[in-house]
Amino acid sequence: MIELVASIHNICIEGINGKELRLDQFRGKKLMIVNVASECDFTPQYELLEELYRHHKDSIAIIGCPCNDFGGQEPGQEEEILSFCQTMFQVTFPLSKKINIRSKPVHPLYQWLTDKALNEVTDSEVTWNFQKYAISPKGELEHVFSPETSPLDDQILRWIEST
Predict the structure, then answer these.
(1) pTM of the model as a whole
(2) Which residues does the Swiss-Prot or TrEMBL record annotate as the active site (predicted)?
């Protein structure tokens, strides 16, 4: 059974390398959480996410969450996903192990991101790969950006640069 959590900073995810990734380490920093896939039309956004991360790593953390729930576009195992991301896009931001977003059991991170009762802001549906959730330094959900929104879109850059 998956336990519901009240704060995003209380959530731990398993990194793609098998090590625990505690979200409380990002307290005080903006956080963008993106569900990612290797065989999607939006896969080139990995390169833009990495550019965003490198240029703003003092003020934002990015976590990519591989998921196969949308069109079966992330069929690989963790080792394959990591190799693909590093080889094709030189990704250095953290990646989680593959998680469930639509299929059961939904990962606690995505329960929190999509359920107003938990995030206290809005209910949202993850519509496809590369949907972006913007979290404040205090752990509050601030924005949900569609998969079509480029990681370098002005809306995202303004959010990062805002205090």
Answers:
(1) 0.95
(2) 40
